[in-house]
Amino acid sequence: MKIFLLIFLACFCTGAFGIYIPKATNITNRKFPSTFIWGAATAAYQIEGAWDEDGKGESMWDRFVHSDPTHIDDRSTGDVACDSYHKWQEDIELLKQLNVKLYRFSVAWTRILPTGYLESFNQAGVDYYVNFVKALRAAEIEPMVTLYHWDLPQTLSEQGGWLNDSTADRFGDYARIVFKNLGPYVKLWATINEPKTTCTQGYASGEMAPGLKLVGDGIYQCARVQLLAHATAYHIYHDEFADQGGNVTIVIDATYNEPLTDSAADAEAAEWEFEFNLGWYANPVYLGDWPQIMIDRVGNRSKAEGLSQSRLPPWSKDELEFVKGTFDYFALNMYTAVAVNAIDEPPIGTGNYYLDKGTGTSYKPEWTPSIAGWLYSYPYGMRGLLNRVWSKYNPGSIYVTENGWATTEDLNDQGRLEYLQGYLSNMLDAILEDGVVVDGYTTWSLMDNFEWARGYTQRYGIIDVDFNSPNRTRTFKDSAKWYSQTAATYCLVDTCVD
Ligand code: PNW
């Protein structure tokens, strides 16, 4: 008898009967607006595999993982990943089962232009993605297409990549082809994913492709070129494809910055931290120019280092105009909170973005740590950050284009479920209480995938992928069962008030 009761309880709690009773107590039981769009997100290199099939060229990530296996914790690669290049029909079935109406995925630049140059045009790559977006539409799932999620053509990388101004023009060439061919089926576009992560991890810490360590100057040049590339694509869309009637923006990642103490100095430091991270990219696009605190601090420190020009490259008047206003909505990636404190002015030495910032960062003990060193759960941060973005940049509409939780948990991923429930509950508070317009949400991630330098050691999927099976079998985790219920009912708990 006892054993039956145990089995019954275990099944009941894990949602095997399709009902889930949430453990968390402070989750709202109000409904999301009926216009809210539920979705899931992925990126090409992290899921597709087929790294050299059907004419695809080599990207800087292909080179990064192949040239030195120790770049990746478990010495793995994205050569096969989730094999989504071949299993795309099955992936669309998963999206349908999840009840989501929006799928954010990225196009691999090297499938369309294998070397990054127009001469290398590859029709097979275009056909692949056209088929895919048509099939999504047939399934009544809106595609949100990211043009660039970190997989720069290796040829362009060798010519300086995001340090070379001409990469912005190459990005324009590529964007034009994608707009032209996929445009009839796509209304939501994202140009570049998380330029900050590319500059800090790819061009400064060297942890990601292309593995450069230019923490004083390259890091700022990388930001400049990516912003120019974004603006180039934005203008091409609105100048040449306006009749398609879609919306274009850049995807910016941000943390919620909470002052460590209630001192005025820590409050100011939190403000600096915000500007040196989100403002670095959002200011030029939404307001024009770099944040003033960056202009001042990097300028002053550069001068003290004896340089004749700021390491933060100043915009020309034309460039400023070109970048300013290149948004149709705000795409925000949000995972964690960071506690910020004031520090003494770091001594002058060699240029360094982290010293330019002039802040100390940590995490509060009451926040729940994930297995990823940088990711802590503090659900209120979602509400706080949304309010900040809404009032500072006045974007008209926000989509939260990534938000998720890293675990080693398998199918019983209670931790992820509670994280998502808490963050979404706070997002709903921002919508209903504060009047922030959040039109949609694509959770990271649809399925476990290649987590960059962490390989397959950190899982973000709401759907499990068996990387040991050649079939890459997909299985719903508890969080996916809960999410499919939520996407169908617009309700985070079992019953909502109307
Ligand atoms: C994102 N942070 O990166 C990327 O867009 C995804 O490709 C990646 O898989 C996912 O997050 C999980 O790592 C981020 O420090 C990296 O706040 C770092 C941060 C945020 C997002």
What does this structure look like?
It contains 17 helices and 13 strands. The chain is an alpha/beta fold and 498 residues long. Helix 9 packs antiparallel against helix 10. The longest helix has 24 residues. The chain is globular. The chain starts with a helix and ends in a 9-residue tail after the last helix. The site of 4-nitrophenyl beta-D-glucopyranoside (PNW) has 15 residues, from strand 5 and strand 6.
**What is the CATH level 1 assignment?**
Alpha Beta
Which distinct ligands sit in these coordinates? 4-nitrophenyl beta-D-glucopyranoside
Estimated structural class: alpha/beta
List the total number of helices.
Answer: 17
CATH topology: TIM Barrel
The H/E string reads HEHHHEHHEHHEHHEHHHEHEEEHEHEEEH
Which band does the percent of strand residues land in? 15-25%
Oligomer: single chain
3D shape: globular
Q: Can you identify the CATH superfamily?
A: Glycosidases
Q: Which CATH-level-2 architecture?
A: Alpha-Beta Barrel
As for the number of domains, it is 1
Task: Please report the total strand number as a whole number.
Answer: 13
**Approximately how much helix is present in the residues?**
40-55%
Rounded radius of gyration (Å): 22 Å
Major sheet description: 8 strands, parallel, barrel
Enzyme class: hydrolase
Family: Belongs to the glycosyl hydrolase 1 family. Klotho subfamily.
GO biological process, one term: carbohydrate catabolic process
Keywords: Glycosidase, Hydrolase, Signal
